[in-house]
Amino acid sequence: MLDLLEFTYGRYNGGQTAPIGSYLNPRTFCIFQQSTDGILPLDGTFVRVDPSGSQTFTAIASNLNTLLNTTYTAASFHACSGGDATVSPGTMSNDA
Fold first, then answer.
1. pLDDT per residue over 13-62, tens digit each?
2. Confidence (pTM)
3. Domain ranges of the chain
4. Which of 58-89 are b and which e, b meaning 16 or more Cβ less than 10 Å from the residue's Cβ?
């Protein structure tokens, strides 16, 4: 799943400067949204699932369901918070 997400949406690492948009962390299913270019939280690997920094979780779930053939809903995701941070931020979910 992560490879398909990265090929489709691109890969961004926590702590990296990223453009405006809505970002999904596939490890935690948190969504981080920013309306200006900024630094992503230290939560691991992110994919930019929408160029809007205010897209609804429902729309994001719908797009992911189409891509991945899944049945996510808005409730499948949560807003990123400090509690999602990785113990070792340099070790992303797919560093192999």
1. 999 999 999 999 998 999 999 999 999 998 889 999 999 999 999 999 99
2. 0.86
3. 2-81
4. eebbebbeeeeeeebeeeebeebeeebebeee
